[in-house]
Amino acid sequence: MTDTPGDDDPVNKAETLDRHGAALDLFTDRVHAVRADQWDDPTPCTDWTVHDLVNHLTAEQLWVPPLVRDGATMESVGDLFEGDMLGPDRIASWDTAAAASREAFREPGALDRLVHLSSGDASATFYCGQMTVDLVVHAWDLSRAIGAEEKLPGDLVDFAVREVAPYADELGESGLFAPAVQPSPDADTQTKLLNLMGRKV
Predict the structure, then answer these.
(1) Which of 119, 100, 117 is nearest to 24 (CA)?
(2) pLDDT tens profile 28-41
């Protein structure tokens, strides 16, 4: 996957930070809505429970400071964020990781840096955009799993579609997402995004 056009545009960077923050807020809202008896419930993500889903997103946020702030590589971090990152207080663990991710991306000059991802080197702006898409789509997964509002904010959906478009054909080949689902002719933008990411709505 390669950087999206306009990564060096200050307006694009500002919008990316805004959308990332809003996506963090959205997912945080859903995490705080999980009832104590729902953590073992299934999600639209194959083989993932609610706990697994939130744990995955928590680990992803924990990766941000070393990659963006410290210039770390995947190899240097190793398996530090593998396993259970939630511990006994799942919600507090998510909140802590989300705050660290937000702070690292918002440091002055952070989006001007290069980050070393598993897919290769990329701009921090591109990485932030990817993280935003992941938060938005998984917010829908979590919403469906716990019976929360599934309608996603339109600006986040539009942003996610623009971010995914340049590498949409690579998603299925990456092995990270289920094969895309053919949307119905009258599908709205949110449904098209979710179908593209392998979700059957």
Answers:
(1) 100
(2) 999 999 999 999 99
